[in-house]
Amino acid sequence: MLSIRNQLNGTWEQVRGSLQRDLQTIVTVLNTRWAATLGDRNQLSLKNNVQGMLMPSNGGSAGWTIVQDATTVFLNPGAGTVFYLEASGNRTITITGTPTNGQWLTLVHKAAGGSNRTPTLTTGSGQFRFGATFPALSATTSALTDYITCLYNGKSLTFDVVWVTKGF
């Protein structure tokens, strides 16, 4: 039992290290691509929000929640802000629990099992909402990871999909 636990801890540390490097890349891309449109003040605010949410200054785990792969995957915003899913099929993602206004939520979606996988976000009150920039999600390429980040809008009672970064 101890051997299995040590193997899992080692595997988790590898996954966490890889994901933190991927997230640093996302922060760099956001700063580069959005600098001209956001302006210095808003760019700094965005950078601080992303870094605070995904890479805490204490150097520890960002409080990621690894979710069980199933046909319908439930994300509880009370359990964290970053949810990691290795999907072995196309999955429906549903919110359960009570979010707070302004709360960030990121789904780290990896396509497992040798095929492309498409996550479907449940829409409606208390769920997700798409806008003009991201009107829908496309498939995550086999063996790669996509990051889907949402912000809870207390007025509309939805997690608005504010950016999607693909292909890590």
Question: Radius of gyration, Cα only, in angstroms?
Answer: 16 Å
Largest sheet: 6 strands, mixed
Fraction of residues in β-strands: 25-35%
Flag low-confidence runs. Answer: 36-48, 51-61
Write down the overall geometry. Answer: globular
By DSSP, the count of extended strands is 9
Q: What is the first-to-last residue Cα distance?
A: 33 Å
Describe the structure.
- This protein has 1 helix and 9 strands, in the order αβββββββββ.
- It has a 6-stranded mixed β-sheet, covered by helices on one side. Strands 2-4-6 form a 3-stranded parallel β-sheet, with no helix packed on it.
- It has 2 domains: 1-57; 65-165.
- Helix content is 32%, strand content 28%.
- The protein has one helix at residues 2-54; strands spanning 65-66, 72-75, 82-87, 91-95, 104-111, 119-121, 128-129, 145-153, 158-165.
SSE order and pairing:
Elements: H1 2-54, E1 65-66, E2 72-75, E3 82-87, E4 91-95, E5 104-111, E6 119-121, E7 128-129, E8 145-153, E9 158-165
Parallel strand pairs: 1-3, 2-4, 3-5, 4-6, 7-9
Antiparallel strand pairs: 5-8, 8-9
In short:
This protein is α/β, with parallel strands linked by helices and 168 residues long. It has one helix and nine strands, in the order αβββββββββ.
List its salient traits.
alpha/beta; 2 domains; three-stranded parallel sheet; six-stranded mixed sheet; globular
